[in-house]
Amino acid sequence: MSRGRYLRRIQKIKTGSFMVSLPMDWVKRNNLSSQSPVFVIEDPNNNVVVRIPTSKCLVEVNVSQLSISVLEDVLKILYMQGLSKIILKSETGFSEEVVRLVRSLRQDLIGYEVEDIGFKQIIIEVKDSIEYVDSETFMRYFKKSLRYLKSALASLPSHVQSYNAKNVKEVLLEAKRTYRYLARLLALALKEPERNGLPASLHVVYIENITRLREIAYYIYRMVDFVESLTPKDVELLKPMISVVSRAIDLLENGLDIDALASLREEVNSSEEALIAQTHNPKLIHSAFALRRIMHNLLRIVENFYAVAKVQDVKCVAEELEKTVEFSG
Fold first, then answer.
1. N or C end of the chain: smaller count of CB under 10 Å?
2. Which letter, b or e, does each residue of 116-134 get, where b requires 16 or more Cβ atoms within 10 Å of its Cβ?
3. Superkingdom of the source (predicted)?
4. Does residue 167 contact residue 159 with C-beta atoms inside 8 Å?
């Protein structure tokens, strides 16, 4: 079965309109006829896409051989891939542990709902309120995730006094919810061109920046565990670094000042060196390292946004394909 690209010439018909014929093998493969409706979409990359209208995508998963931890990872990955319906199957029924996991994921995944729990089948649906994925929508959720991360970071000094990590971890959970949803939005934009308002260059940058958000959340999560064992004196040594990183998040929320971020990174590096000279506590040193890595990721995020802003005006010209590609279909 032939799959690939097809070269076509634009033709003008009597009405004055222009037309392009569809490849015959593509029409047959998708059971289309002369009256079949298709979407004709102009995407942000200046391409016209012909797409067959489809129902929402679903997948069936046999959970019989999956451990709880693997099932949790599978469900989160399917969610981030943009699936709208997930059907879990088990010939022997579901354990209480599986049912509990499926229900608990409502706390972790935006739009995730358990529609039905039966003896051999569980139906999960994800309801997206977003009809169009553009830069404004993406950045709204991106900045929301940043605010959660900043809140978790800022609460660490007070958290030390209470010896209760629960509140900080709950804020981190909200940050995770938002960056998982960001990954889902990008998947929706890729598989459903009619929802896509993002040029290809933005997709690449946004995917990397989501990964950097996840790394920031990871380091804050580790710090929650480290900080519980620190003394008030240790915390005083950390506070200058925490303050600088919080200022960096504020800068990122409000613009793309690379020079200011680079200056703050140097400030964090100097503070880390000063802290290491005053302590032998490995958890305090690890916390300082975590703050430096957070700062590094913030700067990389800004550099990515700055670079893509500079290439938005790139213009592409049509290639002379007749010399290299045969007309077909």
1. N
2. eeeeeebebbbebebeebb
3. Archaea
4. yes
